Amino acid sequence: MGDRHVKTSTSHLRPPQIPYPPSFTHIAELPHGKLISDITILYFYFIRSTFISSAPQVRLHHYLTLVEHHKFSREPELVEQQYEIYQSFLVIAATFVIPLCTMVADSLVYHPTVNHYVRFMNTIIGRDKVLRFVQYLARFLSYYLLRKGYSAKALAPWNAVKTQFGMARKLMRVGKNVENLKEAGKLAGTKNMDPVLRYTAIARQLSYFTYLTLDSLHYLSVSNIYPLPSITPTLSKWANKAWLSGITFSLLSGTYTLNQLSSRKAKANRLLGEGKVEGKRLEKEMFETRVQLLSDACDWVIPAYTLGIVGGKGRLSVDEGIVGLAGIVSSLVGVRAQWRKTAQEGGGIR
Predict the structure, then answer these.
(1) Cβ pair 255, 290 in contact under 8 A
(2) Which DSSP string do the residues of 113-163 spell out, in sequence order?
(3) Per-residue pLDDT tens over the stretch 217-275
(4) Is 33 exposed, middle or buried (0-12, 13-18, 19+ CB in 10 A)?
(5) What does pTM read for this prediction?
């Protein structure tokens, strides 16, 4: 065997020390963790040695490094035997482990769900809904931990996530008000539309235009880009009023739509043949309308709580925890809608 001339004493060989990975240090502190960490670090060096080189001197160097780190036996009769086992593991890794890892990696990279996820995250709405979910999850958890008596140190990360993600989302919304103004103009020129849906949609878009405009000014102030300390609280208050107004019009529109769909479904169910098919289609539309109404109802709680309409002494029993949960639910509804929308779309930022 070509490598059987390995010296039985390794004290004169001092290979450079390779830092012990920090994650393995934590593993070693767990029950039976020393054995787990030893096996893990062995595998780490097997793979590393296989990727770097197959030369005998490189394998010897890695083996000696393992001896230095793990205090493997230095008994003369065991050193050569250990080294042979080490090389056998390298052969196993090169023959089986690496091809298997490559196959798994290829399956993940080209999986349709991964491609769909990339399309989803390439949309501004998709990223915003994910950030919003995390923001309100942090808001709920910070309130929950506070009620449980956790220290300020334990609450600090969640409060930071809540604040920083909120600011990031404000920045992402800057300039979006133009879209709402454009939609309001298009709806104003539409004649072949139900008057109730048309006017509530126009009012909703104008409310969101006002909200996003004031919200952008509020962001410029609180971020110290263009401080407006004298009117910052007023900007926040009126932005929340405009947001609440937009959600209210959305709730009115959704309720009216659900009532109309229910009437049409009742008529379709009395018919045979195509009427049954139409009834099933209307049932799906009604389900989506109910989901949107749930989202709007949850969203309504957030500005209403900020403005003091709900919550507080003598009002509906709403606190930070309920606001956090409401934000989580409406965010998940938004994630679901955007995920479905990007199911068949191509890439690119939208």
Answers:
(1) no
(2) HHHHHHHHHTSHHHHHHHHHHHHHHHHHHHHHHHHTT--HHHHHHHHHHHH
(3) 999 999 999 999 999 999 999 999 999 999 999 999 999 999 999 998 888 877 766 66
(4) middle
(5) 0.71
